[in-house]
Fold these 2 entries.
Entry 1:
Amino acid sequence: MDYVRIGDKVISISKINSTIDEILELRCKGYSQQEVAKILNIDRTFISRLESIGEVRKGGKIAVVGFPVANKEELERELKKTGVDFIFLLTEEERQRFVKDQSGLELVNGLFDIISKVRKYQHCIILASNARSKLLSALLDCHVYTIDIGKSPLKEDVYVDVNRVLKIVESIKE
């Protein structure tokens, strides 16, 4: 049933749903609430209330960086379920390819790009060797949580305890 009657009004459910979809799409693209309200000719307060209804987590955004991770797909899947905002995980093969497939300048620029992205988050969980964890912690100006997955230098993928990482995510959210 696409239409409902409320008193003297006939309401289109699909119009409501498409408008909500459009609001969320514009907000995800970076438009402010005020800009979206102007574009769609609706009240900004409606957008704010709509976001409050659907809000799953308030507070700092979370990034997770890890390498070399054997169970990368499993960990990514579980982190996405919890709403982690930025995930950068590599297997050893991906890490080696990242280093070898770029010139020195491209590599440095790529690393700085990743670091600048992660620095935008209030919390970062680092899954790396003991030496890499310390280095990354020093480069970030957020709350850093480290899980040392081995002694440097790591040369093969390491299985990461997904539940251990998820417990840290949950403690951050609380």
Entry 2:
Amino acid sequence: MINVALEGAEFYAYHGFYPEEQVIGTHFLVDVQVGFYADIDVEKDNLSNTVNYEVLYAIIEEEMKHTRKVIESVAQAILNRITTEFIFIEIAVVTIKKQRPPFRGPLKQSVITLSYHK
């Protein structure tokens, strides 16, 4: 299996349950990992024989622009887009880290992870 990943993609977005979160926004980090079996000859050094990092990033970037109340919804939208774009993917994992969520005390981040298995 071949694994392709993007780690620590940074975005400023407006996801959150509370109205002020959707106005003020915060920083998010997004990790995406996908896995697929190579039924193709990877030695041919052809981008069409793998998952294009730029396309992965564009999917994440676009979905992070759509404000949602829960980041699980964002992660699911990213998974849906990735598995539609790259139908040969066997597994995909999306992790979203919300930096400094609005709690009474100091907290570095809240984290959710969603997985897809064909």
